[in-house]
């Protein structure tokens, strides 16, 4: 972040506070150094946001529901001894930021902010990062207004107390409750958007002719990935294109939610041993926690798991499976039960979010029970992704009302969209609960094809707005 030039009238206090304002919320290690007498300007550590959230990332607060940020503390170098850290809600930081940048952000009401464990975390000896800590943001403020929450930290190592730490600021935006649309639909309609080349916004430009409600009920950001860190911990990884969606969440996702479309984040394997069927119970718990941070901070409505491209499912001569403490000892021990464990841990942390699964091979979906809960109780939907074909999970594993046994691909490069009317009639007439479309493109209109689908599923037609969005446009 670049600061405006500081005039001579700015107080010494503001100058001191300015050094505490964090210029990045990225997850990579900072380049600061330990402060010494020879290096008095260096920092001791930083307050950072989980999920790679940048400074001033906006957190949406909808209606009477709380929102949550997730923070951690990172030292400029590994700790020689245990470091106790206390986070503090700090309006002084926000005042300094406003004065330095010519902004006028107002601190969100302090009585509506709760730091987990009273803001106390620890950085263990030999490590540089603390565990994450939740910042609960309770309902309040004026709908449509923009507030801020500034958080600073004091770190204590032995007898030394360090206040020379960079702070972090979230924005908070109270929004209206998401409108309820298509409430009477028996078949919900999901769209996967390949954000490597397409914009999420195109999913919102198709509406029902009768009432102008969205054609799609759910749009999924395809995709973020699951990977293993150097410390053998599974985490959510985002490439540049997915990161673009997150960094511009107000432009790429909020317009869809304002129309009543639920937006999910898809999670895909990424050529490492980490995957839905390989994680240990502890690793599944850790990944679910990291995933929750993304869902909370960016305001997604749910998760969509896609068990592809992890190395237990790839050509071992090209990408061999390498076991570790975080994953199964062998490919044979990468099981659907482990997948169920991950879904359970995710559901436990996110009881109010939608959880879906995408499958196509016949063994790449969760099976089993966890703590007395069946897969059918833990998930909200499943999508069969061998496009143009019909296949279902056994109904004693996932009930048909939660299944999409037939989905289509609308990729422009594949030519005309192929639609099987009989499959659509089967979905509607026999109680199947979902239909899905993959790879909505911006190069053309799908009004004709979607109207054909809509007539069979909903006795209605679809209208296209005529708007087309490039991947980075809005």
Automatic annotation (TrEMBL):
One of its GO terms (biological process) is carbohydrate metabolic process. Keywords: Glycosidase, Hydrolase, Signal. Gene3D superfamilies: Glycosidases, hypothetical protein (bacova_03559). CDD domains: GH18_EndoS-like (cd06542). Residues 187-474 form the GH18 domain. The keyword DNA repair does not apply. One of its GO terms (molecular function) is hydrolase activity, hydrolyzing O-glycosyl compounds. This is DUF1735 domain-containing protein. It comes from Bacteroides stercoris.
């Amino acid at each position: 972040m670049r600061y405006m030039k500081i005039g001579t009238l700015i107080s010494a206090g503001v100058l001191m506070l300015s050094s505490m304002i964090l210029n990045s919320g990225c997850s990579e290690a900072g380049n600061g150094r330990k402060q010494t007498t020879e290096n008095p300007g260096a920092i001791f550590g930083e307050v950072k946001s989980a999920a790679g959230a940048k400074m001033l990332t906006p957190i949406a607060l909808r209606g009477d529901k709380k929102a949550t940020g997730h923070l951690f503390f990172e030292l400029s170098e590994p700790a020689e001894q245990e470091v106790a850290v206390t986070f503090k809600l700090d309006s002084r930081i926000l005042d300094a930021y406003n004065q330095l940048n010519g902004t006028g952000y107002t601190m969100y009401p302090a009585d509506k902010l709760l730091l987990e464990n009273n803001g106390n975390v620890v950085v263990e000896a030999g490590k540089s990062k603390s565990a994450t800590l939740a910042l609960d943001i309770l309902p309040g403020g004026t709908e449509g207004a923009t507030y801020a929450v500034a958080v600073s930290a004091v770190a204590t190592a032995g007898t030394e107390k360090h206040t020379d730490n960079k702070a972090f600021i979230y924005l908070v935006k109270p929004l209206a409750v998401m409108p309820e649309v298509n409430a009477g639909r028996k078949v919900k309609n999901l769209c996967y958007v390949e954000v490597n080349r397409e914009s999420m916004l195109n999913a919102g430009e198709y509406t029902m002719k009768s009432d102008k409600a969205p054609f799609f009920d759910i749009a999924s950001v395809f995709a973020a990935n699951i990977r293993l860190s150097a410390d053998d911990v599974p985490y959510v990884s985002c490439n540049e294109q997915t990161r673009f969606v997150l960094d511009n969440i107000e432009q790429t996702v909020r317009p869809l939610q304002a129309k009543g479309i639920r937006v999910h984040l898809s999670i895909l394997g990424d050529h490492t041993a980490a995957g839905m069927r390989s994680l240990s119970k502890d690793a599944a718990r850790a990944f679910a926690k990291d995933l929750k941070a993304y869902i909370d901070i960016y305001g997604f409505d749910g998760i969509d798991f896609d068990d592809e491209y992890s190395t237990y499912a790839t050509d071992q001569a090209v990408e061999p499976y390498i076991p570790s403490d975080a994953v199964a000892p062998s490919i044979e021990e990468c099981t659907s039960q482990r997948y169920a464990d991950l879904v359970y841990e995710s559901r436990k942390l996110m009881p109010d979010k939608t959880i879906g699964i995408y499958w196509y091979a016949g063994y790449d979906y969760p099976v089993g029970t966890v703590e007395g809960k069946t897969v059918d109780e833990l998930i909200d939907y499943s999508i069969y992704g061998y496009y143009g074909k019909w296949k279902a999970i056994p109904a004693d594993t996932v009930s048909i009302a939660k299944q999409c046994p037939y989905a289509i691909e609308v990729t422009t490069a594949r030519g005309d969209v192929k639609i099987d009317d009989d499959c659509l009639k089967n979905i509607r007439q026999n109680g199947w609960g979902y239909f899905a479309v993959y790879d909505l493109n911006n190069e053309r209109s799908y009004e004709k094809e979607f109207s054909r689908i809509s007539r069979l599923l909903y006795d209605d037609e679809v209208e296209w707005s005529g708007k087309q969005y490039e991947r980075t446009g809005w």
